[in-house]
Write a structure and sequence with these properties.
binds adenosine-5'-diphosphate; 20% strand; binds magnesium ion; five-stranded mixed β-sheet; 22 helices; alpha+beta
């Protein structure tokens, strides 16, 4: 009968699961892949106060994972406990759970690992005379035996997942697992710069000697990152954020390079990663991701790390406050840092080109979008930092001249600055050269335009060297910031079209454009539906000048499709501003008059984040006299 099975299933008695089965089930969550074993074991070593941790990996961790530390060790009596479920030395009562300071606390890692691999622990407690070894295989624990080693613990895992062939089958290629292990070790190393790490994997040894946070960032992320990175430090309402921000121009194709830590714990929390990315949103292309190291310190009671067995996710009591501080502090630091472009963008010859001398950065004031605000308020709140007007003769933008450069300038008459001619009768001075047209170059870090090269590059002479500007990229940034200003002022400058432009589109596109007419109007683009198959554009943003209106409108219609329901207004506004800026900018290839070139240079100097266009590409590079001399082997 069909019912028999039902009945017998329903009448089966409730039974406690066998401990070994529980371990296997839990192992599925704690030890997903070899890298998670590495993480658990290194965290145990850190919890034990290790100053030095040696990691050896064979066959992507499936063959062998061995972690040796010089921490306080485990007493012989405690060894059997350490490998049994829910035994921990780190948490004694529920009160402790709300303010966890150690990495581990669940007492799950060792038994889980012992359930799916061959585990052996050799440890000597700091107060013991000798070391002891305990082995667990397929969940069966053998009694401890005497062994030899100094104070500290060595944990060895062989044949990981041999007990769970299904898991073994689902592991990715060896190369992927190896990469995951090295990423895990990098994160752990960043979390504990005072601890020395050695990783031996595939015959390669990577050393992270103990040092400061900055030194560790250099070891892990490379000297280029360390030299360029912008230091991050912010504090609000008991939340402290510190770290290092990679330049927007050194963005990467994956989100893997945002390293986040909460109270010293490695976290891989999507909300935090997204907040970091949102901080860069304005200065980075949509498909790029920042390289950044971000440490968050917060009252342990205000954060829950017990969300998932792997302890990589966190829940904050006040998520908005944490997110807000991450986004706004990153934005402010990026805007305040002098416009610079990554050196990594250039090849060996361009390595000499940098973006010093940088215009003094305008003060930034970025505001987080607030869900309580109406459309107008939110648009007003969403705005770019207001550039401070540079006072002429104020000398606020000083060059940092490379040593010797000033002397060089004095000894060589600058070709573009002709010796002042004898005063003409009546006290009038002779017409100046290019430099004089641009005024005192000390006020103008980007100097005076000398020429336009290949239709797109402005060559300018500065006191300290030369600057090469990508006119399209630079102008795009300026237009972008102008659009944001216009939107924020709530009275966007628009120009009425003499003859309204009617653009034929698919009915869906007309509907979508009409639904977002408010967003476009915030920038001065006024459009409405014109029957079911067209829109009519009556006004366009003044900042865009003359441009191909139908092309922009069609592109905007395409983009709305990408937005989705959930996209915040702030993100939509950025998106639209970026698209408009691209359409309204001086094209590469357009010849510019000297006044136009100089005007562009002056605009770059006063525009926030002008060091890169809104795709994150640099807008200008500089070559100091010092560097020019090096190129010509004069020094
Ligand atoms: P948890 O870290 O959550 O306490 P684990 O299963 O990872 O659970 O470890 C169980 C216990 O074993 C720890 O509480 C600790 O007392 C001990 N232990 C594990 N690894 C080490 C180590 N490397 N040094 C000292 N003690 C260790
Ligand atoms: Mg642990």
């Amino acid at each position: 009968m069909g019912d028999t099975a039902e009945i017998s299933r329903a009448t089966r008695p409730v039974r406690r699961l066998d401990d070994r089965l529980i371990d296997k089930i839990a192992a599925g969550e704690v030890v997903e892949r070899p890298a998670s074993v590495v993480k658990e074991l290194v965290e145990n070593a850190l919890d034990a106060g290790a100053r030095s941790i040696d990691i050896a990996i064979e066959a992507a961790g499936v063959g062998l994972i061995r972690i040796a530390d010089d921490g306080h060790g485990i007493a012989a009596d405690d060894l059997p406990l350490a490998v049994s479920r829910h035994c921990t030395s780190k948490l004694s009562d529920a009160a402790g759970l709300s303010a966890i300071l150690t990495m581990g606390f669940r007492g799950e890692a060792l038994p889980s690992i012992g359930a799916v691999g061959r585990l052996a622990i050799t440890s000597r407690h700091r107060e013991a005379d000798g070391a002891w070894r305990i082995a667990v295989d397929g969940g069966r624990t053998a009694p401890p035996e005497p062994a030899g080693r100094g104070v500290g613990t060595t944990v060895e895992v062989r044949d990981l997942f041999h007990a769970t062939p299904a898991r073994l089958k689902f592991l990715k290629a060896e190369r992927t697992e190896t990469a995951a292990i090295s990423d895990t070790v990098k994160r752990l190393a960043l979390s504990a710069p005072g601890v020395g790490f050695t990783l031996v994997m595939n015959g390669r040894t990577t050393e992270y000697p103990p040092g400061s946070t900055a030194e560790r960032a250099r070891q892990v992320l490379g000297p280029e990152f360390a030299e360029e990175a912008i230091a991050l430090a912010a504090e609000r309402e008991g939340i402290r954020i510190t770290g290092h921000l990679g330049l927007p121009t050194s963005g990467r194709a994956s989100s893997q390079h945002a390293y986040a830590f909460v109270n010293g714990r490695v976290v891989r929390d999507r909300q935090i990663t997204q907040a970091i990315r949102a901080g860069y949103q304005d200065v980075m292309a949509r498909d790029r991701h920042p390289v950044a190291v971000v440490f968050i310190e917060i009252d342990p009671a205000a954060v829950d790390v017990n969300v998932h067995p792997a302890k990589a996710d966190v829940r904050f009591r006040d998520t908005q406050a944490v997110r807000g501080l991450i986004v706004s502090s990153i934005r402010r630091h990026l805007a305040e840092a002098a416009p610079r472009a990554s050196r990594g963008i250039s090849n060996a010859a361009l390595a000499a080109l940098s973006q010093r001398p940088a215009p003094a950065a305008p003060a930034a004031s970025s505001t987080e979008a607030d869900p309580e605000l109406g459309f107008d308020e939110e648009v007003a709140a969403w705005r770019s930092p207001t550039p401070k007007k540079r006072e002429s003769g104020g000398g606020s933008a000083r060059f940092s001249l490379p040593p010797g450069a000033r002397a060089f300038m004095r000894s060589q008459p600058a070709p573009a600055r002709p010796e002042p001619a004898a005063p003409a009768p009546g006290g009038a001075t002779a017409p100046g050269g290019t430099m004089d047209e641009a005024g005192d170059e000390a006020d103008h870090p980007l100097g005076a335009a000398v020429a336009q090269v290949h239709g797109n590059y402005i060559l300018a002479q500065t006191e300290a060297g030369i600057v090469l500007v990508d006119q399209h990229a630079a102008h795009e940034r300026i237009v972008y910031e102008a659009l944001k200003e216009a939107a924020a002022s709530r009275t966007p400058a628009s120009q009425g079209l003499l003859i309204p432009e009617v653009i034929e589109l698919a009915a869906d596109d007309v509907g979508a454009l009409e639904a977002h007419a408010d967003t476009f109007a915030a920038f001065g683009l006024v459009l409405e539906a014109f029957g079911p198959g067209a829109v009519v554009v009556r006004e366009t943003p003044a900042a865009l000048g003359n441009f191909d209106v139908p092309r922009l409108v069609k592109e905007l219609a395409d983009e709305i499709g990408e937005w989705g329901e959930a996209m915040a207004l702030e993100a939509r506004l950025n998106h639209v501003a970026a698209t408009m800026a691209c359409h309204g900018s001086v094209r590469a290839g357009r010849a510019l008059r000297p006044e136009e070139m100089n005007a562009l240079l002056r605009q770059i100097e006063t525009t926030p984040a002008a060091g890169q266009c809104n795709h994150g590409r640099p807008t200008f590079v500089t070559l100091s006299l010092d560097e020019i001399e090096k190129l010509f082997e004069r020094r």
